[in-house]
Write a structure and sequence with these properties.
About 40% of the residues lie in helices and about 15% in strands. By secondary structure, it is α/β, with parallel strands linked by helices. It has a single domain, classed as Alpha-Beta Barrel (TIM Barrel), CATH 3.20.20. An eight-stranded parallel barrel has the order 1-2-3-4-5-6-7-10, surrounded by four helices. A two-stranded antiparallel sheet has the order 8-9. Helix 4 (about 115-125) crosses helix 5 (about 150-160). It is globular.
Length: about 260
């Protein structure tokens, strides 16, 4: 099968951005990725037009939730607004016909009880209306992160499995985050599947930093610390749609898409 691949693009016209890259999907933010303000559809014709135009062009849409969301947090002033914002993005994603919303797993402070963070995830999933799937993404850093180490992902999945609606939650595997988070790319697909039963999306990125550095800094394929064959093997083994979140805009991402297609097909 041809590789179902695209990139993280500007939100004004994700359909056109996919076309420029020769891609079949686009991932983007709805509004300000660093803010607690609600989602905004910036497509010229609004949500309905974006849904119709994406369908007509054969482009799948994925929404990345804003970075401040941390539903595991023990701080009410972080957790509660984050839950609200996540709910808003799930509803907005449904309006544009998106395939899923991707959100980071979050973290606690170094001295806080991780069990409470995992239980906060259960409570969050219990209370969410999910008209589209929610995909939790593994993260690169933090010693008390909910989705960095495989052991933590297992605890997170146990918590989510106890929630009503847990079966609507999927997994997004980021190669840079896995590498920088200290997870061997040679076995990560099998080990994640053994925990979650699924991989719904791959964020294919090279890493500017060394293995287990904890640094979330993406770079273009072949320019970082991840072996090219290992990266291609992850994509092949995951057999899921792929988003390149690499730098360089249209030119850099188009080159990365071609690079990966040549190695995986």
């Amino acid at each position: 099968m041809p590789l179902h691949i695209g990139a993280h693009v500007d939100q004004e016209d994700p359909v056109a951005e996919a076309g420029v890259r020769g891609a079949t999907l686009s991932q983007f933010f709805l509004g300000d990725p660093q803010s607690y303000k609600g989602p905004v559809v910036r497509y010229a014709g609004g949500a309905a037009a974006l849904k119709a135009d994406a369908e007509a062009a054969g482009v799948d849409l994925y929404v990345h939730a804003p970075y401040p969301i941390n539903v595991a947090s023990l701080n009410n002033r972080i957790r509660i607004p984050g839950r609200k914002l996540l709910q808003q993005h799930l509803l907005a994603a449904a309006e544009i016909g998106a395939k899923a919303v991707i959100v980071h797993g979050g973290h606690l402070g170094a001295d806080e009880d991780a069990a409470r963070g995992f239980d906060n995830w259960r409570k969050c999933i219990d209370g969410l209306e999910m008209p589209v799937p929610l995909l939790i993404e593994n993260t690169a850093g933090g010693d008390n992160a909910m989705a960095r180490r495989l052991e933590a992902i297992a605890r997170l999945w146990d918590a989510i499995g106890a929630a009503s609606g847990g079966d609507t939650v999927g997994f997004c595997l980021d190669t840079c985050h896995a590498h920088a988070g200290g997870n061997d790319l040679g076995s990560v697909v099998d080990r994640v599947r053994a925990i979650t039963g699924r991989i719904d999306l791959v964020h294919a990125n090279d890493s500017r930093d060394a293995f287990d550095s904890g640094a979330d800094r993406h770079t273009n394929f072949g320019a970082g610390h991840i072996d090219g064959d290992a990266l291609a093997d992850v994509v092949r083994a995951a057999a899921a749609p792929v988003v390149c979140e690499t730098p360089g805009g249209r030119a850099g991402q188009s080159s990365d898409i071609e690079w990966l297609r040549a190695r995986v097909s």
